[in-house]
Amino acid sequence: MIRVAVAGVAGSGEWGSGMEMPGLRRARERALLTQAELAERAGIQRATVNRIETGVTAARFATVRKLAAALGVPADVLLAADDATGVTSGPASAATSGEGKGR
């Protein structure tokens, strides 16, 4: 379930035009980017990335699309509250990617 908050009023619980992005920081860190680097790639202000990551403000749909494109991930990855980033690593990665079959 995706909770949508009024842009600029994170945590208000009201339905509006902005989206919370709990997966943003996780995806940015996995891409090894700073907030400034992500902002530059997405064409937005670094302060905007910071406010979205900290929950001070909710992202508009256009901003979600820009951030997802800059990170090379689907938008739902950024909106996901769990660790559904689509990025796998370690031993489980080989099992789910088909590597190592036939051994």
Which helices and strands, and how do they pair?
Elements: E1 4-5, E2 18-19, H1 24-30, H2 35-42, H3 46-53, E3 59-60, H4 61-71, H5 75-79, H6 91-97
Antiparallel strand pairs: 1-2, 2-3
Helix pairs in contact: 2-3, 2-4
Total number of strands:
3
User: Helix and strand succession?
Assistant: EEHHHEHHH
Structural class: mainly alpha
Low-confidence stretches: 1-16, 84-103
Strand order of the largest sheet: 1-2-3
Count of folded domains: 1
Radius of gyration: 15 Å
Report the span from N to C terminus. 40 Å
Average pLDDT taken over every residue: 74
Report a brief summary of the structure.
With 103 residues, this protein is mostly helical.
Explain this structure to me?
The chain has 103 residues and is mainly alpha-helical. It has one domain: lambda repressor-like DNA-binding domains (434 Repressor (Amino-terminal Domain)), CATH 1.10.260.40. The chain is built from six helices and three strands; from the N terminus they run E-E-H-H-H-E-H-H-H. A three-stranded antiparallel sheet has the order 1-2-3. The longest helix is centred in the middle third of the chain and has 11 residues, at 61-71. The chain is globular and about 20 Å long. Residues 1-16 and 84-103 have low confidence and may be disordered.
